[in-house]
Amino acid sequence: MREVVVERGPDGWRAPFRRLLAEGLPPEDVRVTDARAQTTLLSLGEGERVSPRAGAKAPRRFFTIARRVACHADADRYDLLYRVAWRLTHGAPTLLEDRVDPDVAALRALDSAVRRDAHEATAFVRFRKLDDGTFAAWHGAEHHVMRLVGPFFADRFSDMRWVIITPHESVAFDGSHLRYGEGSGRREAGVPDADAMDETWRAYYASIFNPARVNPRAMRAEMPLKHWRTLPEAALIPELVRTAGARATEMQTASAPDTREAADAADSLEALADGVRRCAACALCRAATQAVPGVGASGGVMLVGEQPGDEEDLEGQPFVGPAGAVLDAALRDAGVPRAALRLTNTVKHFRFTRRGKRRLHQRPTLEHVRACRPWLLREIELANPRVVVAMGLTPTRALLGQTVKLAAVRGRVLESDLGPSLLPTWHPAAVLRASDPLERRRIERELRDALARAHAMAS
Ligand code: SF4
Fold first, then answer.
1. Are residues 184 and 162 in the same domain?
2. Are 352 and 447 in a shared domain?
3. Given ligand 1 and candidates 366, 368, 369, 376, which is best to mutate, with the most ligand atoms within 8 Å of its CB?
4. Domain that residue 12 falls in
5. pLDDT averaged over every residue in the chain
6. Which of 127, 164, 281, 342 could form a disulfide with 135 if both were Cys (CB 3.0 to 4.6 A apart)?
7. What is the CATH number of the domain that holds 408?
8. Which of 282, 312, 367, 376 is the pocket-test mutation for ligand 1 (most atoms within 8 Å of CB)?
9. Does one domain contain both 320 and 338?
10. pLDDT of residue 233
11. Is the dihedral of CA 148, 357, 278, 315 positive or negative?
12. Which DSSP state fits 8?
């Protein structure tokens, strides 16, 4: 068994893994830990040698995910990463598309936890001023995310000297360089519990608090209780929630939101995206993290999905989650560059139900689709695509403005009152849902063909 020690952080595993793969050392002969968990250096033991496939490389997406997974606190994360890297380079180059594979499922679960932890760090770190002018914060991160979020804070607080301490590690900024060090518990960190800035935080929070969007369960999920002790504004929450109902009714009677008016007023795609981000016209905005406006090129092909998923909701970008990965594969097979497309959704906020820590997709209701449709129609006017690909039942019905069965129109080019031709096809998530391999391949093929056809029509 070869025991390998890598440097902790998003990139410490890369060079050692490259060496191990080049040597052809299979995962069952390797145990990887990080520098803080063990003090011995790279040791050279004997293992069964298997030659890697000549020229085999892990896909770029693996590196993106692996950087985050390497920051998870799970002691076995490097072994999992090496196993996946090995399989990707030894006969399974599309492994990441196989979401039922246990290694891929585990990888995605760790990735998702780190993304959430990093997101919480950027949202919930609160600095307190020390006597020497340095700003310090203690934050209860669960994973080693400071190397992921350090550059974000350096950019945002570039004119301050600051330090963030977490249980696992710390990061300090002196105005020009980031330095990483050991972490500590909250008490040992010595960060004051309060300072003069707290009142400013509370005033700011009270001013942005939208009573029409209050959902205490969702708030606790999005702002987990474990962070409340370091958030000065958390003290306000019980009272704001208690009075939210009355204030929301007041707001609604004063001005009922009208998406059609707001959408029609947008004179550019940027203005439209701003309007979507501010929209509170239906209940979906209460639980979602943020709205996800459309992105991409104008004038060619516009792909319209149903709604953002869990990862899109966290990142604020369409098609970056599992369905996005399926879409990317279909685009690759169809020879269509993603950058040539516009990507958007029928409904711009994520609808979900909670199951433990997981947020499970729920199809938007007719009421949500109706409320959000003006944003989509205006986006089509402003982006002026030649072909709109409606991916799934929800966009097909929303764009045709009538109740049809997807099977009756899928794969057909339809004329619509909207201007561009309309081509209904599968939503990429249908590939993920298909349990029968034959059915899955059929959906993949039809999706790919629809994308290639739309691209050819718009060229
Ligand atoms: S889903 Fe659409 S209509 Fe509803 S709040 Fe979001 S942007 Fe507005």
1. yes
2. yes
3. 368
4. 2-115
5. 85
6. 127
7. 3.40.470.10
8. 282
9. yes
10. 67
11. positive
12. S
